[in-house]
């Protein structure tokens, strides 16, 4: 069995309840988006100096996204391709959100992050099982892949 299949199967063991699954479809992408926003909010003078042509995208979130993409590439090339699109959307969305100026990006991102984690923990309380990352932190990266693999299955794309 491929490593990605084993990880997705193990992750899925604590995500059988229909309510918890629905919660994850909202909260996992929200957490991912908010983490990108929090990391985007870190002052990025060094990154801007090293990557001057990227403008607003020369930030620590872009660096982190590249590292996350390497992780996904090692697991599955098709999932990696999907995460390029999702990651680009998250970076773009956070740059746009920061540009609105109605509140600091870090504050918006922190609010989303806390609300989404509360939702996640409530979903797991309903399920009656602990979140997978309590067993292995790697599962924090598998949650988004678990959702993407369902999209791929429905579209008939092998991952």
- Rg value: 16 Å
Number of strands: 0
Percentage of residues in DSSP E strands:
under 5%
Report mean pLDDT, rounded to a whole number. 91
State the end-to-end distance. 13 Å
- The helix tally amounts to 7
- Give the structural class: mainly alpha
What is the element string, with H for helices and E for strands? HHHHHHH
Oligomeric state of the chains in view:
single chain
Instruction: Describe the sheet with the most strands.
Output: none
How would you describe what is shown here?
The structure is a single chain. The protein has 159 residues and is mostly helical. It has one domain. The protein is built from seven helices and no strands. The protein has helices at 3-13, 18-40, 45-50, 60-75, 77-100, 105-127, 139-155. The model has no long low-confidence stretch (mean pLDDT 91).
Task: Name some characteristics of this structure.
159 residues; single chain; mainly alpha
């Amino acid at each position: 069995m491929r490593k990605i299949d084993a990880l997705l199967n193990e992750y899925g063991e604590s995500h059988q309840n229909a309510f918890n699954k629905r919660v994850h479809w909202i909260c996992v992408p929200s957490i991912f988006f908010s983490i990108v926003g929090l990391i985007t909010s870190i002052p990025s003078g060094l990154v801007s100096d090293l990557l001057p042509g990227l403008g607003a995208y020369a930030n620590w979130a872009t660096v982190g996204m590249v590292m996350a993409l390497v992780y996904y590439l090692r697991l599955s090339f098709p999932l990696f391709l999907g995460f390029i699109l999702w990651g680009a959307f998250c970076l773009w969305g956070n740059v746009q959100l920061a540009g609105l100026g109605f509140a600091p990006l870090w504050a918006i991102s922190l609010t989303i992050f806390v609300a989404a984690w509360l939702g996640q923990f409530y979903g797991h309380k309903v399920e009656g099982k602990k979140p997978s990352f309590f067993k292995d932190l790697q599962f924090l990266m598998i949650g988004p892949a678990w959702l993407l693999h369902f999209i791929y299955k429905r579209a008939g794309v092998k991952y």
